[in-house]
Specification:
By secondary structure, the chain is of the alpha/beta class. The protein has 15 helices and 17 strands. Helix 3 crosses helix 11, helix 12 runs parallel beside helix 15 and helix 13 crosses helix 15. The protein binds pyridoxal-5'-phosphate.
Length: 415
């Protein structure tokens, strides 16, 4: 099979971009690494690695509490990321940016602070059939505690949410609609603006789980009119253990704190504690300072590349990969939404995804196999698992050719 040229979009020099990612240069089992698991975690450019190294080597100090030079420097660098995140999401103020460990913590924070205060017996929370466990379980826990009801927007055979059914779920008891912007298991891009508008019309709030959207498309929380939006740093080419929760100022002000401890207080006596301003009220204890600084470098990196260019390039890559995989007999794509991003999830007749993943690994190809923390999605399609190749802007057509070749080999081995 002939290798297709790597550079598919004018002006998007993928080979040059790959030079920024040291991890991609290695061989695995003697073969060049083909990394197709960016939805699980994305690889990190030198700029991120260097920002973290510089913090530890030159500026290392705790933040918000020292008058000395190192503390001032690290505080400035950490807080600069809040400003970068504000720009990245187009929030109105940097004070709408709460640092969390990742999307999981962002959702848990809202469920346990806003949720505990506002959700009462008989109220309803709406999620969708496409959710990652992290946008199911926190709401389930809240509903259990409050005797509230969890309702689920169904999807069709392509993996698209059925908005007519969603409309029917909305009512006077709906308090929150929480949904993924992009599905990690299927790649479906949900019509976020419309879903939020419908939630608002019913008098509910809307939280968007942007874990799989932030690496692939431009996010504008004001244009979306989102009440909450969360994403994980490690999926946008930053470090693990850091993420962002955007919340509308008025909501953050009214929410009780998440955890108690240092930094989130204004005054403490044994009789009474008063809390710090937002967003610091939600950031108890020493945060992931190095992670925050690394995330700033990652946001700079993708912003510099341009999210619109990234989206255009990945769109072509996805179309190429979909076509290449459609040539493989017995392969069925799971998730064929008309609006899709960066995910090729599939099953092959008679071959377990775990076996597929194992054979591909011997060829240097890293894919994810399993339920992708979205068991209800698998149940809906009546399958236990899929093989998922997930893309980033550093992937190439040649790598998708390698995947298709690898799957032919899998079929020979298990045929
Ligand atoms: C759609 C979606 N939401 C939430 C998460 C949770 O992200 P994290 O584990 O970084 O908190 C993931 C992770 O895969 C995801 O894909």
């Amino acid at each position: 099979m002939s290798m297709a040229p790597s550079v598919v979009s004018a002006g998007f020099d993928v080979e040059k971009i790959r030079e920024d990612f040291p991890v991609l240069k290695q061989t695995i089992h003697g073969k060049p690494l083909v990394y197709l698991d960016s939805a699980a975690t994305a690889q990190k450019p030198f700029a991120v690695i260097e920002a973290i190294r510089k913090f530890h080597e030159v500026d290392c100090a705790n933040i918000h509490r020292g008058v000395h030079e190192l503390s001032q420097r690290s505080t400035a660098a950490y807080e600069e990321t809040r400003v970068k995140a504000k720009r990245f999401l187009n929030a109105r103020s940097k004070n709408e940016i709460v640092f969390v460990r990742g999307a999981t913590e962002g959702i848990n924070l809202v469920a346990s602070t806003w949720g505990r205060k506002n959700v009462k017996e008989g109220d309803e929370i709406v999620i969708s059939a496409l959710e990652h466990h992290s946008n199911i379980v926190p709401w389930q826990m809240l509903c259990e505690e409050k005797s509230a009801k969890l309702r689920v927007i169904p999807m069709n055979d392509r993996g698209e949410l059925i908005l007519e059914e969603y409309e029917k779920l909305l009512g006077p008891r709906t308090r929150m609609v929480a949904f993924g912007h992009v599905s990690n298991a299927l790649g479906t891009v949900n019509p976020a603006r419309q879903i939020i508008e419908m939630a608002h019309r019913a008098g509910a709030l809307a939280l968007v789980d942007g874990a799989q959207a932030a690496p692939h498309m431009k996010i504008d929380v004001q244009a979306l009119d989102a009440d909450f939006y969360t994403f994980s740093g490690h999926k946008v080419f930053g470090p693990t253990g850091i993420g962002v929760l955007y919340g509308r100022t008025k909501l953050l002000l009214a929410m009780p704190p998440y955890q108690g401890g240092g930094d989130m207080i204004r005054t403490v006596t044994f009789e009474k504690t008063t809390y710090n301003d937002v967003p610091y009220k939600f950031e108890a204890g020493t945060p992931n300072i190095a992670g925050g600084i690394g995330l700033g470098a990652a946001l700079d990196y993708v912003t510099h590349l341009g999210l619109d260019r990234i989206a255009a390039y990945e769109h072509e890559l996805l179309a190429y990969g979909t076509e290449a995989l459609s040539q493989i007999p017995g392969l069925r794509m799971i998730g064929t939404a008309r609006d899709k991003a960066a995910v090729l999830s599939f099953v092959i007749d008679g071959i377990h995804p775990h076996d597929i993943g194992t054979v591909l690994d011997r060829m240097g190809i890293a894919v994810r196999t399993g339920h992708h923390c979205a068991q209800p999605v698998m149940d809906w399609f009546h399958i236990p698992a899929t093989t998922r190749a997930s893309l980033a802007f550093y992937n190439t057509r040649a790598e998708l050719d390698a995947l298709a070749e690898g799957l032919r080999r899998v079929k020979e081995v298990f045929g």
